[in-house]
């Protein structure tokens, strides 16, 4: 009879018996190939859905702050307190630039314009774009990577820069061969003629309108309408020895405006987009759905697997195997399929995400996502084990020998 009662100083024979029992557990698992592969497939699908949807959600979140990251030369952004996200244009008075420059602790401060304007291509196609106006003298806030032309070309007459990465999709002329707009083309912005003097490449943005750069004074000319004040933000760089919090408090006191760091502005934008567009709810539901599907499929399949092998567990019980050892057998079986399913699922989710990201899908998988997915799969596995363990613990060994 196999005696598996744990005790101090267990003999080598006892250890070998434990190894035999666990080998039987693996043989039981691999013996039913259909349920074995079904368990792996269920857990793999759950892991893939959880990891992929969470990665897409993180990717979208990062895209919401793309413009701020590309324009992150400043320490603080001065803005209207009611601004909700980076493209929320609430104009400020021009005098605020001088007020900020005269604040102790400020090294430099430059104006920035950003707003939605109407434009017309040479073939008559109308479209909406995001126009960004940079400080005329310093060009602070310029795109991080130029593809064609030099940054100083922005000072040329009527010059603008287009995004080389998105112009092929967002700035296509429907007539004249259906070609994208390119360096050297002219078009109109709010009935003002503009000349494409260069192109740049930026991070992929959540906002789908094309982003064009020009100088601040030219942006005001292009966008001039009924508003006298068109200043969007004041970008502030602090002195090396200045205290961020003290200078921020002083700026807010003197201007009556909000002063936010890059990360705070990025978080503000992400929170607004996630909460107001329903993206968080949609992807959260998809993640919960993956967890529910994994729990149901894995739990039902493993429970059926346990029912099919009750005679084996009953035989082992009749031979003196304790409930603790039987629980170890079940946990070993679940651990094997969980590790394999988790690895396959996260691998497939990563591969599909990278494949779709090349086509423009937002996808980002930091290390926290595989870790959270692992915890979710562990919980799924524990739930599957719990249903099976209840049946095994309630099993009477004598039932095996009846009939």
What can you see in these coordinates?
It is a single chain. By secondary structure, this protein is α+β, with helices and mostly antiparallel strands. The chain folds into two domains: 13-63 and 279-401, no CATH class; 76-260, no CATH class. It has helices spanning 12-31, 33-64, 66-70, 95-101, 167-170, 216-223, 244-255, 262-277, 279-308, 310-318, 323-357, 368-393, and strands at 76-79, 106-120, 126-134, 145-148, 159-163, 186-189, 192-201, 211-215, 233-238, 258-260. Strands 1, 2, 3, 4, 5, 6, 7, 8, 9 and 10 form a ten-stranded mixed beta sheet that branches. A hairpin with a 5-residue loop joins β2 (106-120) and β3 (126-134). α9 packs parallel to α12. The radius of gyration is 31 Å and the shape is elongated. The two termini are 23 Å apart. The model is unreliable at 1-13 (pLDDT under 50).
Q: How many helical stretches? A: 12
- How many angstroms does the end-to-end distance come to? 23 Å
Class by helix and strand content?
Answer: alpha+beta
Percentage of helical residues? 40-55%
Main sheet? 10 strands, mixed
Q: Which parts are unreliable, with pLDDT below 50 for 5 consecutive residues or more? A: 1-13
The structural domain count equals: 2
What do the pLDDT scores average to? 82
Along the chain, the helix and strand elements come as: HHHEHEEEEHEEEHEHEHHHHH
Task: Note the overall shape.
Answer: elongated
Count of strand segments: 10
Strand residues, percent? 15-25%
Rg on CA atoms, Å? 31 Å
